[in-house]
């Protein structure tokens, strides 16, 4: 089968090589899927450079998130079954930038019937993160003001739609007028262009001086700093990533004076330590999606030959939505 392999660490163009490899056999507790679509995640660029939290032995196939059809099951697996359409995280080193990939059966979730293959491929990281952050960590309530940074990105756009589904008033932060138009289409009630506006001042104006009750921050750096200046009393700032490259640095004296909380979310720990919580999260998301409240924002659909270019684009911050690769 065809597969893109990381043969050495570096940029996607330096690290990746396309070749023919053996079809992997699922081990105990695993399933093999024929990949229908693979999402392109920022974390895949970190896998290429060797900076991800997991460093598989070279060579390996990246591609952390897929939608596919089960073609084989390993020992001890009864669900899912051959022929089932599933989505979820791959089991490295047999990732999703290949014709077939491996997944752990316990985290191969049913794909909502309402979603296309491309939408389903880009669903689990963005939407599990969004639901667990907004509902389990921040306990968002109807009528609250939700501030979402990078509102047209894959993770941000999911948070926008989940916030709307929860009855929140959603303020999205974007970079540039084209992304501002897209943010309105995704579902933002108010859009702030960070390139031409003071984010904190705009949020305070949009909320009548109240501030954001919940902040969803996958960016870090200036986004986090701005958030601390417009978060409401008893507000909750959710730290879900640092795509800017600058990690959030909380000033606890400032949090004390202003009376806000900073909440971190590592979805991987939930999968490892609280799998029942993640299954309940996914079931809730399927209901929301099939009720018509979610329309995952898919970016460019790249052909299989363009995996390095797709990863370079997401690393450069030039994408909207979640790009996908279609084998």
UniProtKB/TrEMBL annotation:
Pfam families: ADH_N, ADH_zinc_N. Residues 11-325 form the Enoyl reductase (ER) domain. InterPro entries: ADH-like_C (IPR013149), ADH-like_N (IPR013154), ER (IPR020843), GroES-like_sf (IPR011032), NAD(P)-bd_dom_sf (IPR036291), Zn-ADH-like_protein (IPR051397). GO terms for molecular function: oxidoreductase activity. It comes from the Bacteria. CDD domains: QOR1. This is Alcohol dehydrogenase. It comes from Janibacter melonis.
């Amino acid at each position: 089968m065809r597969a893109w392999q990381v043969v050495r660490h570096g940029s996607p163009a330096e690290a990746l090589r396309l070749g023919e490899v053996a079809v992997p056999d699922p081990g105990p507790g695993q399933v093999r899927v024929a990949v229908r679509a693979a999402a392109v995640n920022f974390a895949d660029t970190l896998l290429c450079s060797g900076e991800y939290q997991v460093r598989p032995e070279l060579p390996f196939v990246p591609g952390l998130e897929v939608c596919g059809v089960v073609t084989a099951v390993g020992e001890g697996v009864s669900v899912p079954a051959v022929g089932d359409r599933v989505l979820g995280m791959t089991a490295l080193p047999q990732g999703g930038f290949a014709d077939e990939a491996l997944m752990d059966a316990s985290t191969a979730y049913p794909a909502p019937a309402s979603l296309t293959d491309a939408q389903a491929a880009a669903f689990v990281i963005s939407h599990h993160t969004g639901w667990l952050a907004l509902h389990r960590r921040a306990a968002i309530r109807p009528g609250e003001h939700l501030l979402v940074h990078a509102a047209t990105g894959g993770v941000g756009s999911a948070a926008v739609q989940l916030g709307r589904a929860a009855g929140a008033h959603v303020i999205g932060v974007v970079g540039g007028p084209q992304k501002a138009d897209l943010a309105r289409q995704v579902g933002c009630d108010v859009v702030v262009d960070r390139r031409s506006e003071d984010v904190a001042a705009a949020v305070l104006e949009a909320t009548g001086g109240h501030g954001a009750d919940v902040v969803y921050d996958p960016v870090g750096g200036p986004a986090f700093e701005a958030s601390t200046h417009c978060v409401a009393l008893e507000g909750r700032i959710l730290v879900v990533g640092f795509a800017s490259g600058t990690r959030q640095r909380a000033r606890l004296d400032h949090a004390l004076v202003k009376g806000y909380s900073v909440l971190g979310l590592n979805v991987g720990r939930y999968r490892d330590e609280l799998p029942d919580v993640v299954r309940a999260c996914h079931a809730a998301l399927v209901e929301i999606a099939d009720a018509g409240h979610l329309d995952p924002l898919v970016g460019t659909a790249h052909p299989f030959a363009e995996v390095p270019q797709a990863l370079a684009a997401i690393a450069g911050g030039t994408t909207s939505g979640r790009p996908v690769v279609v084998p």
